[in-house]
Write a structure and sequence with these properties.
Layout lengths: L4 E5 L6 H15 L7 E5 L5 H8 L5 E4 L17 H7 L3 E4 L2 H6 L4 H14 L2 E6 L3 H5 L3 H12 L12 E4 L17 H19 L1 H6 L2 E4 L7 H5 L6 E4 L6 H27 L1
Parallel strand pairs: 1-2, 1-8, 2-3, 3-4, 4-5, 5-6, 6-7, 7-8
The structure holds 2-phosphoglycolic acid.
């Protein structure tokens, strides 16, 4: 059984005070609910500690939205470093989100380095990979994803399945970049994740490929969460826009729960045959 995880990603949509208020509401409403997956929130960096204090006590985890690679020397004004996240025992950090890649020009190399440095420091990176609308039109989706994965699995670096997760986020399905294209069906995402596992198998062997958690992100919300989570190759979700309001975040978690339960029932029935 792969580790299942659902993360609400607040990006810059909530200020410090709004984050505090949302986290207080989430912790109050979530405390009596149970989920067959880990739940987490990635707040804006200035609210990380305060949100962490509110949500960890009800068993949710905190996730950094971004982190710098490990500093060797030099001075990096404005950055959140791995040392800072380690001190806070921040469990997860998103690296390589499309907004970091496309707005802040983070290269595959930078993303790969951040992910490796997190893993070496015991922070679990959620490494985002994904194709743009342009990549799809030019049939280079798999070339792009292969390149993004190779930048992570450099040289002899051999992380285990509990060290990190991947998040497949087709850029064109993320609310920030959304095109007129309809959102992908669950089965389509299942096939993409299967193909990503095949790429990982080629790079690092089938054991990692089959046991690594691969999350999906791209306009996941209360009405489509179950469609993705019921897929056998989808181990979790990143929820952006729909996580901003506590009620919508919790409804999305519940939809994902329904999807995962349907999948578990299906697998049990298949195994019994
Ligand atoms: P979205 O964002 O759910 O608003 O599309 C997801 C993400 O950017 O990770």
């Amino acid at each position: 059984m792969r580790h299942a995880l659902a993360v609400g990603v607040w990006k810059d949509r909530l200020t410090f005070l709004e984050s505090l208020s949302a986290a207080a509401t989430v912790s109050l409403k979530m405390k009596d609910l149970t989920f067959p997956f880990e739940t987490a929130i990635a707040p804006t960096p200035i609210a990380l500690v305060s949100v962490q204090n509110l949500i960890e006590r009800i068993g949710m985890s905190v996730c950094a939205q971004n982190v710098m690679w490990k500093e060797e020397t030099g001075s990096y004004i404005g950055e959140t470093t791995i040392r800072m996240l380690s001190e806070l025992k921040c469990k997860y950090a998103i690296v390589g989100h499309s907004e970091r890649r496309l707005v802040f020009n983070e290269t595959d190399e930078v993303v790969g380095r951040k992910a490796r440095d997190c893993i070496n420091a015991g922070i679990k990176p959620i490494v985002c990979i994904g194709d743009s609308a342009n990549d799809r039109e030019q049939s280079r989706t798999w070339q792009v994803m292969d390149r993004q994965l190779r930048a992570l699995f450099q040289a002899e670096f051999r992380p285990g399945p509990s060290d990190f997760s991947l998040a497949y986020e087709p850029v064109w399905a993320i609310s920030t970049w959304r095109t007129a294209e309809p959102l992908p069906e669950g089965s389509v995402i299942n096939d993409y994740h299967r193909e990503i596992r095949n790429l990982i198998a080629k790079l690092r062997g089938s054991e990692l490929a089959e046991t690594l958690s691969i999350l999906y992100g791209g306009s996941v919300n209360p009405s489509n969460g179950s469609r993705y989570m019921r897929q056998e190759n989808v181990d979790g979700v990143l929820i952006g826009g729909a996580s901003k309001e506590p009620a919508s975040l919790i409804q999305t978690f519940l939809a994902c729960k329904q999807g995962l339960e349907e999948r578990n029932t299906r697998v049990t029935a298949e195994n019994a045959e």
